UniProtKB/TrEMBL annotation, chains A, B:
NCBIfam families: mgtE
Assembly and oligomerization: Homodimer.
Spans traversing the lipid bilayer: 300-317, 323-344, 375-396, 402-423, 435-462
Domain CBS intervals: 219-275
Species this chain originates from: Pikeienuella piscinae
Name of the protein: Magnesium transporter MgtE
UniProt gene name: mgtE
Entries under InterPro entries matching the protein: CBS_dom, CBS_dom_sf, Mg_transptr_MgtE_intracell_dom, MgtE_N_sf, MgtE_transporter, SLC41_membr_dom, SLC41_membr_dom_sf
Length: 463, 463
């Protein structure tokens, strides 16, 4: 491999797992559940962070989930529910006592309630919304009115706003008087009388300023207001690119409706990265805790598309049946052609998909990148042509066979480079996700062109 | 595809690109540079955020980079330098006037200076360190003493600390008196006389508390202190899992040495995700702005490993040369066997690598996941066995050929599932990165087993 160990991986297993849920703890909880020792279960999970408790729920099996929820009872932390993967959320909620759920949900920020509610089956959804106070329910329903994967769904309604004529002293007094401050809370949003945000002030800056100074003097006016309809991936990009921790969200009239904080953006970033990785691997939006039938069903269509393209490649070979019958070494060497083309294409494709996602590949440098990939394909094509030509010659003692392999390799790696860069760019141009199915397209191209070149040249030069 | 459009992609190109550097702007800058219109260049780039200016530098070619740096002159924002990709950083720094660089660097936080310095060639490194004040240079050199990709390299030294007996009033007075507060700044770290952190207080909480309250009463004691030697991927995991925005970093004696903020963690998360995607695609740590020769050279070894494994698969076929010569349809259908096995294996592998990275796949649920993947392989194997059996029968009018294909498909998808899950788990167990070269291992296994089954069965049943 080219950079085997620039990053020292693992070695220290203990440190590696420093933050993860311990294997021993999971085993301990499962044992305590089996023994019906509810007090023991509670003692084990009490010190866990909500996120780790959610991981615990995901990692144990269904029976244990029900037992764990029952054992924890009223001590259930609603945060843990909002950390659960969708695949187990519905199931877990069905185990929670309605009264416990109602009490727990009231402690959540509106964005977490929205997350809990949005994917629920109707029965659970009505029950959960029913547990909220009227005004809180209205807030959650307003968020739900925005499309899935939009800023409106990500935002929380809990925020601190102030008019520009307030002084730092007014602000501090107001905050001290507030019953409860939002958590997390990083910025005060300064709004005009029409509720339009006109500036933001990091909390630290307020603390470093003396009481008589008006907020208008210390607010930043070059903040970014995020439209509530903006897609979550764009929100995530803005947070990452501009190192934001918090940003006001506005409706179509530019009025402040909520705030998105960095933890929501980090979640959206994770989802984006996950989606790209999974799609490049030919997998949909699946989770390790999904059921067997769901996983099999979600992977089937991708394999079916692949079957169609594999049949296409086979049809190319079928055309050259006579050539193969007369010269079986060609059949023996076919996997090398397919494999090298497929891998080279995947390399280029992977880099292109990633660069499109990070917006490092744009219309500005597109043609330069295409040219560069073509040259890379040509260089490595030449290198492997020599290697593989020698292998073919030595293995079958036939110089012409080596020559055919060599020429095929150059053509195949060139085509792999072109397909690897042009397929994702084209998909992106037409508004499709470049990670989606690109791999199948690219390997179809390299298979077909590779086999055609190899068997065509072989038929012409070897028979 | 299974979920073609759960997320509405693109359609609105304008909004999609809302935050990215505009194509027109890049073209405008390049034109202005070509015309030697330095004032025009400065006017165009003045409104750009440092991160966008860095992207601009990455997207234009070498000559334009030199011109742009020269045109901007003393107005260069040092932040932009710290946003640059490593692949162009050295080059860009060579264009910057030493006096401009010295002035610019002084405005950076210590973590950004460390980033600039760590990958520099020695000549540039000495020049940059020389531009710093003595005490700042010492700080940067201390950070550089920690291993690459460690918390010590990620942390900034600028932080706000206080003793526990201070009141909120003392704290506010101290901050108002401070010449400059760190930016970003989210938490006050409470330290004991030995400089060990004993609590943290979000700035917002200080603002919501009255002056006479001692800090000890409002500090959180269950914060996470990060050892300076901890690996950056573990730091990123902790920030993401526990929704941290800031965390104190301690040396081996537990003394406070710095603070890591969420923007550093987000960068580490991005790098982790990028590394996984690229390694799964058989690519090293390359960037779209690397030079052709470097890209070709870094991809060559991965392709070379693949060549070796492809030759192994060919050797399996070679064993059955007589079978193929007698029944050429087997050669025609070989790509279907290889392709289906490879794709099914890649699906499982991708999910496993991702689940290992997010720590959803652990020793606690490992065997359950292996069993589940095996069942998925069996189910889809049966499904495709029927499909492909029919295809083989109809295409070559040979029921026995269809039967051979069907049995091969079941065996191949089972093996694909097992290899796809066991290879990454095994690599992870031995402390290797499960994304690294897993793909090659898995497809080697599916190719070899698939060809062996197909041609072996074919030889036994068809001749």
């Amino acid at each position: 491999m080219s950079e085997p160990s620039e990053r020292p991986e693992a070695e220290d297993e203990r440190e590696e797992e420093a933050y993860a849920l311990g294997v021993d703890l999971v085993a301990g909880v499962v044992d305590a559940l089996a023994e019906g020792d509810d007090a023991g279960v509670r003692a084990l999970v009490a010190p866990l962070h909500a996120a780790d408790f959610a991981d615990l729920l995901e990692q144990i099996d269904s029976d244990d989930r029900a037992g764990l929820i029952r054992a924890v009872g009223a001590e259930l932390d609603a945060e843990a529910l909002s950390e659960l993967d969708e695949s187990v959320l519905d199931e877990v909620l069905s185990y929670v006592d309605p009264a416990v759920l109602a009490a727990a949900v009231k402690e959540l920020n509106s964005d977490d309630v929205v997350y809990l509610v949005e994917d629920l089956e109707d029965e659970h959804k009505a029950r959960l919304l029913g547990a909220l106070d009227d005004d809180e329910r209205v807030i959650v329903e307003q968020s739900l009115a925005y499309p899935e994967y939009s800023a409106g769904r990500m935002m929380q309604r809990e925020l601190v706003k102030a008019p520009p004529f307030w002084t730092v002293g007014d602000m501090i007094d107001a905050m001290r008087a507030a019953e409860e401050l939002p958590d997390p809370f990083y910025e005060v949003i300064v709004v005009d009388p029409g509720m339009k945000p006109i500036g933001t002030i990091p909390v630290g800056r307020i603390m470093g300023t003396t009481r008589p100074v008006p907020l208008a003097e210390i607010m930043s006016e070059d903040f970014r207001a995020i439209p509530a309809t903006q897609k979550s991936e764009d929100v995530a990009y803005a947070f990452s690119q501009y190192h934001l921790v918090s940003a006001p969200v506005v409706d179509e009239d530019g009025r402040l409706v909520g705030v998105i904080t960095i933890d929501d953006a980090v979640e959206a970033m994770d989802e984006e990265a996950e989606e790209d990785i999974l799609r490049l691997g030919g997998v949909g939006d699946e989770s390790i805790s999904d059921r067997v039938r769901d996983i099999a069903r979600s992977r089937f269509p991708w394999l079916a598309v692949n079957l169609v393209t594999a049949v296409l490649a086979s049809m190319v070979i079928d055309v050259f049946e006579d050539v193969i019958a007369a010269y079986v070494a060609l059949a023996v060497l076919m996997p090398i052609v397919a494999s090298m083309g497929g891998n080279a294409g995947t390399q280029t494709l992977t880099v292109a998909v990633r660069a499109l996602a990070t917006r490092d590949l744009t219309a500005s440098n597109m043609w330069r990148v295409v040219l560069r990939e073509t040259l890379v394909g040509l260089m490595n094509g030449l290198g492997f042509a020599i290697l593989i030509g020698i292998i073919g010659y030595l293995w079958f003692s036939d110089a012409m066979l080596g020559f055919v392999l060599a020429i095929t390799m150059i053509g195949n790696l060139l085509v792999a480079a072109l397909a690897g860069i042009l397929v994702p760019i084209t998909l992106d141009r037409f508004g499709a996700d470049p990670a989606l199915a690109s791999g199948t397209f690219v390997t179809t191209v390299t298979d077909i062109v590779g086999f055609f070149l190899f068997l065509g040249l072989g038929g012409a030069l070897l028979l």
